[in-house]
Amino acid sequence: MNGPYLALILVTGSRSWDDVLTLNDALLETWHDALQDGHCGITVMHGGAVGADHLAGTWAKRHQEDGVGHDQIDADWAHCADDCPPGHRKERRGYTWCPLAGHRRNQQMVDAEPALCLAFRVGKSTGTGDCIRRAETAGIPVRRYEAAA
Predict the structure, then answer these.
(1) Which of 42, 56, 79, 93 is the most exposed place for a label (fewest CB within 10 A)?
(2) Phi/psi of residue 29, each to 5°?
(3) How many Å apart are CA 33 and CA 114, to the nearest integer?
(4) What is the pLDDT of residues 24-48, one digit of tens each?
(5) Domains delineated in the chain
(6) Which residue blocks in the chain are alpha helix, DSSP H?
(7) Helix, strand or coil for residue 2?
(8) pTM
(9) pLDDT of residue 4
(10) CA angle 24, 69, 10 (to 5 degrees)
């Protein structure tokens, strides 16, 4: 169940985020607010990583029959963009990846013009910080939830 009648909610967060209760409460409150604002529900959009993204996806799937949509936007770690600088790829244990893929994915999610960004950050998580900055620059309201590293 996806469509323009659902408020698009961007969830970004640290891979080490494990506070299920806080994340579930934030999504439930956001869903309630969207209903009060005249939407039929929400679509939860996230980046598909472990931690906060995975927890948000699990919550959304669990509430699909209640009018919650789910949109996972994965980063394309295997490929570089045309504007990637030469020699910037990272390597570990025989696997190489584009370190800018997460930033491209974050911008793609922000470009979808979500109504709100929920940010679940542990410590100084750089990927989460990048998505927060992009959302704020685009004028998207951000609700922050912080945990010590």
Answers:
(1) 93
(2) -65, -40
(3) 14
(4) 999 999 999 999 999 999 999 999 9
(5) 6-147 (3.40.50.450)
(6) 20-36, 52-62, 101-111, 126-137
(7) coil
(8) 0.92
(9) 53
(10) 60
